Amino acid sequence: MLANKKLPPILRIIFGYIKLHKLAFISALICVLLTSFGNIAAPLVLQNVTTLIEDTVKQVSLNGGNFDFNFVHWDEILFNGYLLIGAYAISITAGFTYSQINAVAGQRYMDDLRRQLFDHMQDLPVRYFDQNDKGDIMSVYLNDVDTIRQLIINSISEVEFFLCTFISVMTMMIMFSVWLCLITIFAGVIMVLATKHIGGHSSRNFLVQQKNIGRQEGYVEEMMNGLKVIKSFCHEEESIKNYHDITEIFRTTGTKANSYANILMPVLGNIGNLLYVVVAVVGTLFFIFDVPNFSGMSGLAPFNIAIIVSFLPIVRQFTNSASQMANQVNTVALANAGSKRITDLFDEEPEVDEGYVTLVRGKYDENGNIVECPEKEATLRAWKHPHIADGSITYTLLQGDIRMFDVDFGYNPNKVVLHNVTLYAKPGQKVAFVGATGAGKTTITNLINRFYDIADGKIRYDGININKISKKDLRRSLGMVLQDTNLFSGTIMDNIRYGKLDATDEECIAAAKLANADSFITRLPQGYNTYLTNDGANLSQGQRQLLSIARAAVANAPVMILDEATSSIDTRTEAIVTKGMDNLMKGRTVFVIAHRLSTIQNSNVIMVLDHGRIIERGTHEDLINLKGVYYQLYTGAFELE
């Protein structure tokens, strides 16, 4: 995972990379050191060659201007030539090696980040996904993580190379001439100030740009999901205009970010060229006027041509390295923005589960008590309840008895949407909720699942406070059929088995028959092996809903939640789906949310909600006789909004 939260986001990402890929990082660092060594060794060799040439010139001068091949130190020149070739060979080889190491490590870390993000996302509460745009979350996976790959492949090695080069260059400069080194340091300070000023503007605009990428992708996803609605209402031009507005904002922020980043390289390049000229001129003037040179190699000594000739390549090496470092401003700024969004997602608090009551397999012993036993011997399921006070364990039969006592709840702590809700659903009963949109029907079922936790009151499941029940086991004991079906890429058999991952083919087929789905499945060319893509787009809405019911059936949960499961299908298909649901509901505790009152008339109790309050409850006949809101809904005197 990532490093300490107190660190800046980009450092958390980098240290996380080092932690996971120590060998790659150390190997790349060694290669950078070798590359830097090769580049710095060249000026030393060049100084030796220059000194040999000066000696030769002196010999010629002493010989009256007559040149003699014996004056040339051929062995030393050849040796230094070999050293020069070796230095550059080491530099080139090491540079190629570290670029390959970083490329592989960057891809691996990108894969690591995406895996960790996905694993973390599975632990986040439903609230997070209700409050954040899915396209924006996808942008973190795709765009922001890719900025980290670019950072690792390009920028980290450049930073390492610059630091190694800087230390080596400063050492070499001091060895050659302290005076010229001070001039270089002064120019370096100017470079740092320019980078800080220009890079700061660039970084801020890149952060805005990354956010706009998420917004853009979220809008595209929304438009693709609603494409039929857009075309049905001839809304294409408005959609195009809105998209162009979003892309214009993206273009503007991107232009600002890149404009600042792109002017940095020329600015530093010109400072480097000016520094080169200044060093050459000052060094020449020092040589002409016999200014004593102060260096780490010879202390106080006269300036000579060898010092100037050797110092200038070092200056060029310094300015080139600084320019290359500045050239990474774009990458670093993007990675800084991307790392902020990545760490924000990582820092989202995972769903808290303090439940310690678990669901186990068991059977009755000779005394009629429930005991835990291996699954192959089990005949029933029970809640295993450890009691903290005395360390004892009790087992409660899983029946599906759901009770809510004076429950208050609000998605926002400052706005309560459920008020004093009390209800009882005994095993095998069918409880229906009726009310306008926003009355709180789905919210009640979300609380039973513990997608959200209540603000006040209690919810008991088989007499146990659901806050004590492990969320995983609680949800395993509940089945859901929603209005919006979600099918996954895979075969029909895979989608049914999603309700119980260890279900056999026979169990899946039995569930499909129970849901009244077997007849249409067997008519498909590949039957249960028919492959579904794009959320089952090749099936009708009714067929997709039947598969959803089959998926719930194979889970064989004692409590079933049906959230307007027939509201988006036609009347004929509704009859088929209703038959499947009737089979599914037999012997189970069922919560039904429906706008079509004809589907809930046989409920044991119907509850009418209004603005988060239960205003009427009773059987169909009771409520008709009451002649209240339900009666008006049923007779058409009043309609749900």
Strand segment tally: 18
Radius of gyration: 37 Å
Reported for the largest beta sheet, the result is: 6 strands, mixed
Average of pLDDT: 81
Could you state the oligomeric state of the chains shown?
single chain
Stretches with pLDDT under 50, minimum 5 residues: none
Q: What is the count of helical runs?
A: 19
**Overall geometric form:** elongated
Strand order of the largest sheet: 12-15-16-9-17-18
Helix content: 55-70%
User: In angstroms, what separates the terminal alpha carbons?
Assistant: 48 Å
Strand content range: 5-15%
Given helix and strand content, the structural type is alpha+beta
Description:
By secondary structure, this protein is α+β, with helices and mostly antiparallel strands. The chain is 59% helix and 14% strand. It is built from 19 helices and 18 strands. It has helices at 9-20, 22-62, 74-122, 126-131, 134-176, 178-225, 227-232, 236-288, 305-326, 329-346, 441-448, 471-476, 492-497, 505-514, 518-522, 541-555, 571-585, 620-626, 629-635, and strands at residues 292-295, 299-302, 358-364, 370-372, 380-386, 393-397, 402-409, 418-425, 430-435, 456-461, 464-465, 478-482, 490-491, 531-532, 559-563, 589-593, 605-610, 613-618. The chain has a six-stranded mixed sheet, sandwiched between helices. The chain has a four-stranded antiparallel sheet with strand order 4-3-5-6. Helix 5 (134-176) packs across helix 10 and helix 18 (620-626) packs across helix 19. The longest helix has 53 residues, at 236-288. The two termini are 48 Å apart. The model has no long low-confidence stretch (mean pLDDT 81).
